[in-house]
Specification:
Elements (H helix, E strand, L loop, with lengths): L1 H5 L15 H4 L5 H11 L5 E6 L3 E6 L2 H10 L6 E2 L20 H11 L5 H6 L1 H20 L4 E3 H18 L12 H8 L7 H9 L2 H7 L6 H18 E2 L2 E2 L9 H11 L6 H32 L1 H17 L6 H5 L2 H13 L6 E4 L4 E3 L9 E3 L4 E4 L1 H5 L41 H16 L2 E5 L22 E6 L4
Parallel strand pairs: 2-10
Antiparallel strand pairs: 1-2, 3-7, 4-12, 5-6, 7-10, 8-9, 11-12
Bound molecules: protoporphyrin IX containing FE.
Keywords: Endoplasmic reticulum, Heme, Iron, Membrane, Metal-binding, Microsome, Monooxygenase, Oxidoreductase, Signal
GO molecular function: heme binding; iron ion binding; monooxygenase activity; oxidoreductase activity, acting on paired donors, with incorporation or reduction of molecular oxygen
Subcellular location: Endoplasmic reticulum membrane; Microsome membrane
């Protein structure tokens, strides 16, 4: 407790070794909820001195001004994310901008940014549409057989994996038709709550030493091996060593745009870099969107009036676009967009963002008359996303699902207030693509079906042990054909 006390900075007293994180360590609370409790217990402070696991002093940022300072204005002091990933054990993940540090982060991010422009997302729509048809066929077949209850996290993981396989590398993920497809099996190894989740989350966020002891890998070796294999094959089909092959028609996918970018700047199309970027598209591309879709359906099921208003918007717009889901059509559905933002507010995929201080920083006094504090390099700053999203001073009735609150806000007015995609120079580059695939899938289903909470449903509970926000027991939703005539 003495560290912050000695520096005259207020915060909760810690317990030996576990600091302020004992409830997280015991699996009782998600780390995001622990940070939320600390945030709520110090309503008038701009930041709080806390102790993470192993008594590591860290700063939990509270005020909107401080959040903007850390994530935007003084970003060059807080450039790196706190994630302990071993380059040796996780060579593919080390390329991921979310994980990469320093100059490597800058280069990796700069290279993938051009493939997430609105034009590129528009160009992905043929892929997205073809997977929407598979989703529709899959659901319709099951409903015809009176199997109308679906575990939505699983359903949407199939959908987003197939979109990623197709829009990413021009492959058929076959997730709907083959339960043993490579892509489907992959999900079993990633992100789902299991007996190891807590240890893995501790290794990832708190302790490289523990990571070394348990040989933690963000992407398990079999996933890395499999991914390298398929990307090598696709690359081989598109180029001879050093040059591009003449293909009958040029593919329009993420991998091809990367190849084109490298060709243009006369850089080599080397396998490790290409596999690294394709790994980023896969790992970031499916999980966050499938969770968003599942949580959104859960909220629509609980709020029939929201669902009805959304279905009316979908029906109106689709009628104007001859039933076709296009990039342009989804731009005309503001209510759909608002429901997704509101879902991300209640269920942000990352309940807290953790930033390393990479360059000494002068933290202003915590309260009038106090002293400033020079933050040493390496200290962790916690941006408590969930706490901000549930703060009654910032959002009226924060526990209620009210999409209207996102209807009339311009993106800029959300600065620091909505953190579902992060903020500042590290903000999610795949946001447009993630939202586009989520919207297309939801339109496909809600234009045909109404949803309600399934009778099979187990009590809704968020896992306390996973790194990303995940439902502990899945989300069971019933589909009923709409009478649209
Ligand atoms: C609804 C879907 C998505 C959500 C909610 C989401 C959310 C986030 C969040 C919270 C971050 C951390 C931002 C920060 O540190 O400030 C992030 C980073 C990132 N996301 Fe997303 N994401 C989504 C979809 C995607 C997709 C589809 C892709 C790519 C295919 C993607 C690629 C990335 C990458 C590469 C980063 C790291 C950026 C960096 O550190 O420079 N995301 N995302």
């Amino acid at each position: 407790w003495s560290f912050w006390h000695r520096h005259g900075i207020r915060g909760p007293r810690g317990v030996p070794i576990l600091g302020n994180m004992s409830e997280f360590f015991l699996g009782q609370k998600h780390y995001g909820d622990v940070y939320q409790n600390i945030y709520e217990a110090h309503p008038h402070l701009p930041y709080v001195g806390i102790y993470r696991l192993f008594n590591e002093p860290a700063v939990l940022v509270r005020s909107q001004e401080m959040i903007k300072e850390i994530m935007i204005r003084s970003f060059h002091h807080f450039q790196d994310n706190v994630l302990w990933v071993s380059r040796k054990r996780d060579p593919i993940v080390s390329f991921n901008p979310f994980v990469a540090k320093g100059d490597q982060w800058k280069n990796m991010r700069a290279e993938i940014l051009p493939i997430f422009t609105p034009n590129k997302v528009r160009a992905s729509f043929p892929h997205i549409n073809s997977i929407c048809r598979k989703l529709e066929a899959f659901v319709s077949q099951k409903v015809k057989n009176s199997e109308n209850s679906f575990e939505c996290k699983d359903l949407f993981s199939k959908y987003t994996l197939d979109v990623v396989a197709s829009a990413g590398y021009g492959l058929d993920g076959a997730s709907f038709t083959n339960t043993k497809s490579d892509f489907t099996q992959l999900v079993e190894h990633l992100f789902m709550p299991n007996n190891w989740s807590l240890l893995e989350t501790i290794a990832l966020l708190f302790s490289p030493l523990l990571g070394n002891i348990i040989k933690y890998c963000y992407a398990p070796p079999q996933v890395q091996h499999w991914l390298r294999g398929i990307i090598e094959k696709v690359l081989e089909s598109r180029r001879s060593p050093g040059t591009l092959k003449e293909l009958p028609s040029k593919p329009n996918d993420f991998l091809q745009w990367l190849i084109d970018g490298r060709q243009k700047s006369h850089e080599p199309i080397d396998v490790p870099t290409m596999v690294g970027h394709c790994g980023t598209f896969l790992l970031e591309g499916f999980e966050t969107s499938s969770s968003l879709m599942a949580f959104a359906l859960y909220e629509y099921a609980k709020h029939p009036s929201v669902q009805e208003r959304l279905q009316n918007e979908i029906d109106d717009v689709l009628a104007r676009y001859s039933g076709e889901i296009s990039y342009e059509a989804i731009q005309e559905m503001p209510y759909l967009g608002a429901t997704l933002y509101e879902t991300l507010r209640l269920y942000p995929p990352m309940m807290a963002l953790l930033k390393h201080c990479t360059k000494e920083f002068e933290l202003p006094a915590q309260s009038p008359g106090g002293k400033s504090f020079i933050v040493p390099e390496g200290m962790v700053f916690v941006i408590p996303v969930k706490a901000v999203h549930y703060d009654g001073e910032l959002y009226e009735n924060p526990l209620l699902f009210q999409p209207e609150r996102f209807l009339d806000q311009s993106d800029s007015s959300r600065n620091g207030l909505f953190l579902g995609f992060g903020e500042g120079p590290r903000m999610c580059p795949g946001m447009r693509f993630g939202l586009a695939q989520s919207k297309a899938g939801i339109i496909t289903l809600l234009s045909k079906y109404s949803v309600s909470i399934s009778e099979n449903s187990k009590p809704f509970k968020i896992s306390t042990t996973t790194f990303l926000t995940a439902p502990q027991e899945g989300i069971w939703i019933s589909f009923k054909e709409r009478n649209t005539k």
